[in-house]
Specification:
The protein is mainly α and 51 residues long. Helix content is 35%, strand content 0%.
């Protein structure tokens, strides 16, 4: 089932929100422009330190 949310463990969210407090709004709700992100980043994979 697709939820259009970011599936991170709680500890990763806490770390990210410390750096980017405005991202807290996306922790428990779907991304508002999910279709656009899917079109832009479909098939993209991060490797190395960016993974």
């Amino acid at each position: 089932m697709e939820t259009n949310t970011i599936d991170w463990p709680p500890e990763r969210w806490e770390e990210y929100i410390k750096k980017y407090p405005d991202a807290k709004q996306f922790r428990n709700r779907p991304l508002p422009n999910h279709a656009d992100f899917k079109a832009l980043f479909s098939g993209v994979t991060a490797t190395g330190v960016d993974n």
